[in-house]
Amino acid sequence: MMPSPSEKYRPFPQVRLTGRRWPTRTIEKAPIWMSTDLRDGNQSLIEPMSIAAKLEFFELLVATGFKEIEVGFPSASQTDFDFVRKLIVEKRIPDDVTIEVLVQSRRELIERTFEAVEGASKVIVHLYNAIAPSFRRIVFNQSKDEVKALAVEGTRIIKECAAARPGTHWTYQYSPETFSMTELSFAREVCDAVAQMWRPTPEHKMIVNLPATVEAAMPNVFADQVEWMDRNMGYRDSIVLSVHPHNDRGTAVAAAELALLAGADRVEGCLFGNGERTGNVDLVTLAMNLYTQGIDPGLDFSDIDGVRRVVERCNQIPVHPRHPYAGDLVFTAFSGSHQDAIRKGFAQRQPGTVWDVPYLPIDPADLGRSYDAVIRVNSQSGKGGATFLLERGLGFTPPRRVQIEFSHAVQAVADQSGEEVCGDAICALFRREYFDVTGPVLRVNAATLRVQGRSVAMPAASGAASGDVYAEAVAVALGMAAQVSSFETANTANGETAVFVGCRVGEQAVRYGVAVNANAALAVVDAVVSAVNRAQWAGVAQVESEAVAA
Ligand code: KIV
Ligand code: ZN
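That is the input. Now the predicted structure with zinc ion docked in place:
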């Protein structure tokens, strides 16, 4: 038994905010994105990235469209220091990309950080210190004034170091770590004091980044905190307001989205949500959520599998098969009703219209995914799934009654194996069921049938006679008490004719025959032959099962 939560945990306090603006707003544009994969993400890995891996990841981030990339914590890690030097010395940073480096509020660490970024044309220097009550009390034993003074002093040193290096365009970022667990008035006091020291202007803004270092409350509470800061912080017109959600409660994406409604201009996070504990906010999901609302995220995930491969290789952590937008299974339907709806959605889709395919919130093709994985068949699937795969594999759509009949064959295979039946297997099964079926009737050539060993001349196909009349004539020629009960045709993707004939032989239930041929008349003959032979097998099976039962 878990201990009683009411004795062990307290609800997170609500923010006293009246006239909330965020609930009535909508997101109309993408935020400034900052990837901290190479810093926060890297710090959380079992095996931190090598320089080669960091470089591969950096190049991926650049190619994806990130303009701000936190490349490391150079005063804390020699690998990070060397990596930053490599980027600069080898001129690997595009002109429109700004690198960011993290540092704590200590002179020697700040100086080492400036050493690392020497020669870069644009840098964001990112200072942080923890300011929440439990950190002041438990971790650092510091008063509010001491915590504030530490932030201001770090800012002062960074300002001095930056002024001494006018060749670089410096942006300053301050993060009151553990912001989301801090008294709001104190968070504002610290941020205001830091801004007062840095003196940002509307032309040269600083970044105030509000971390949910540990996600501790519902996303609406975080949104209230952000809106409160947005309304009350000093220098607001000279500040880029940033958020840095972690995902401890599993709601980092929601927290980031509501924070954007609440006034945030910028989001820090990692691809696929890597990061400490349960991760940083997932920038792929955030960006694609915007995309599916018709907003250009400014990040290119048109080869999501390629992006995923690089990230998995560098982080050495797999992306979950059900991860939004990127997982292997997220565009796959196994259930029959879903497959049916998706198949109809695709069939009715008109090019150039708004995306509206049931169960698919995004066109997989926009992420570079093929449609192959959209419908997969197992024992949970229905006729829609098998039909979709047949359409793709054989290039025609069987009529509904044939779909129903064939779905029993697929179901039997799926039930027997307990496994997925892939598209190739379904097409092979269809061929075996309808095209390759042997029995008492054989078409010898374009003019002759062989029925139980004797030759029968095929009836002449008169141009005037319709297909069903001709099929009936073939059935009569067979002389086997075969009656045509239904007749349908379809054009195949490569211009041949597919014929579907329902036949009753004697007292048996109707069986369907299918044939495809460039010559429509031969397709009719083959379809009748297929149906009669299938009926014959069904008859044998029936007699055998009656014998077993007896
Ligand atoms: O989660 C956090 O608080 C951080 C800061 C350093 C911004 O990663
Ligand atoms: Zn973090």
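Residues 40, 102, 128, 175, 177, 209, 211, 213, 244, 246 surround 3-methyl-2-oxobutanoic acid (ligand 1) (CB under 6 Å).
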